[in-house]
Specification:
Number of helices: 2
Oligomer: single chain
Helix content: 10-25%
CATH class: Alpha Beta
Radius of gyration: 14 Å
Bound molecules: iron/sulfur cluster
CATH topology: Alpha-Beta Plaits
Length: about 80
């Protein structure tokens, strides 16, 4: 697994932050997270997540869930 979920009910769009936008979306170096028309983040490209945990670390509301479990590899032998 990788990024599992962004809980929209917990997200307050960082209303106390001076700068607009979502810190978790800005943390993601591979553009997994995008913002919708309301300015709330959603998982756009989950297959690109490399489980760095920066997005979950940077959400002050704890809205982002990332699992560190890596699917087992199919070895050729
Ligand atoms: S950092 Fe968390 S609370 Fe702030 S906009 Fe992003 S998801 Fe919402
Ligand atoms: S865990 Fe890292 S790569 Fe995955 S969505 Fe979060 S910031 Fe992006």
């Amino acid at each position: 697994m990788a990024i599992n979920r962004i809980n929209r009910d917990l997200c307050d769009k960082c209303k106390l932050r001076e700068k607009k936008g979502c810190p978790t979306a800005e943390s993601c170096s591979v553009d997994v997270i995008r913002l919708d028309a309301e300015g709330k983040p959603y998982i756009a490209y989950p297959e690109d997540c490399h489980i760095c945990f920066l997005c979950s670390r940077d959400c002050p509301m704890g809205a982002v869930e990332v699992s560190g479990m890596i699917p087992s590899l199919a070895l050729p032998y």
